[in-house]
Specification:
Belongs to the Gfo/Idh/MocA family. By secondary structure, this protein is α/β, with parallel strands linked by helices. It is built from nine helices and 14 strands. An eight-stranded mixed sheet has the order 8-9-10-7-11-12-13-14, covered by helices on one side. Strands 3-2-1-4-5-6 form a six-stranded parallel sheet, sandwiched between helices. Helix 4 packs parallel to helix 5 and helix 7 crosses helix 9.
Length: about 325
């Protein structure tokens, strides 16, 4: 793809699997350019840069933050480092897109938002699902009252991970476990549809090291409920059901990056197709660009307050299941 002259220049720190998927999608985003990557392993940075057509590599995150060419940093390091690295980047005048969950505690999430306000730079938690076309369209129909008042949400995110392969999922020090890694997705869906619950009931099956292997959650609202589940030791169909008084919307599997959905209403089923550009990270990158060009420090679609609200919900569940980092 031929890039425009007025590209927004990105840096990436934390060069794992998610960062690779994001970098690949930046190549598909016409006004984005990846100009620098950083890893504490110089060889890893060099290999990553070569694969994704990036000119500069660093073996220090601080050096990337000091690079005047970088306008926005995508932070894809383990969860436990998100807060400090995001704040460091913002102190250096960089805009930040930080992988979810943005922090392992509400207090850290609050510090990150305050840094965005203090240094007058854009900050967003990378809930890419909020920006993919199928979810955007489904939300629009729901807001128009097509399925009536939403009364029930069911959403799972579950897969089988191999503990023997190591990595952050089973590492308590890195913020591992089902809730913070993938449980935030169904909680996000319930939140954008129904808001902050009146009551939360949650139970987990835990690993001997204290992380949650699977967590089930019931969110009670004044006139609605959400039944949610996350697991790293079993699988599910990963469809999401949104039931209203006049109809039902089912987001295709995997719902968090759905390429379409079904609308069931009046005994008829209508399907809608909304393919993503690339994996789907392109859409959140485009939102970052629009906000930066409009001198906004937050997105109207996934705002600072949205992130803080979700962090508070996650922290309540964290306390209920006795999860400590």
């Amino acid at each position: 793809m031929i890039k425009k002259n007025n590209t927004i220049k990105w840096g990436i720190i934390g060069l794992g699997n998610i960062a690779g998927q994001f970098a690949n999608d930046l190549l598909l985003t016409e006004d984005a350019e990846l100009v620098a990557v950083a890893s504490r392993n110089k060889d890893k940075a060099t290999e990553f840069a070569k694969k994704y057509d990036c000119a500069k590599t660093y073996d220090s995150y601080d050096d990337l933050f000091a690079d005047d060419q970088v306008a926005i940093v995508y932070i894809a390091t383990p969860h436990n480092s998100h807060a400090d690295l995001s704040i460091k980047a913002m102190q250096s005048g960089k805009h930040v897109l930080c992988e979810k969950p943005m922090a392992l505690s509400y207090s850290d999430a609050f510090r990150m938002i305050e840094a965005s306000k203090k240094y007058k730079v854009f900050f967003m938690e990378a809930f890419w699902t909020r920006f993919i076309p199928s979810v955007q369209d489904a939300l629009e129909k729901i807001n128009q009252g097509i399925i009536g008042n939403v009364k029930y949400v069911k959403a799972d995110f579950a897969f089988t991970a191999n503990e023997n392969e190591g990595g952050r999922l089973f590492d308590k020090n890195l913020g591992g476990g089902a809730l913070f890694d993938i449980g935030v997705y169904p909680l996000f869906l319930s939140y954008i549809l129904l808001g902050i619950p009146e009551e939360i009931l949650s139970k987990s099956v835990s690993h001997e090291n204290g992380i949650d292997l699977q967590t089930s959650m019931v969110l009670q609202y004044k006139s609605a409920q959400a039944v949610l589940h996350a697991s790293i030791v079993s699988e599910s169909d990963m469809k999401a059901t949104i039931s209203g008084t006049k109809g039902v919307i089912v987001l295709n599997s995997p719902w968090f990056v759905a390429n379409g959905y079904s609308l069931l209403k009046d005994d008829q089923e209508t399907t809608f197709s909304f393919p993503t550009l690339g994996k789907g990270y392109t859409h959140e990158a485009i939102e970052c660009h629009n906000c930066i060009r409009n001198q906004q420090i937050e997105s109207k679609l996934w705002s600072h307050q949205n992130s803080l609200d979700l962090s508070k919900i996650v922290n309540e569940i964290k306390n209920q299941i006795g999860l400590e980092f």
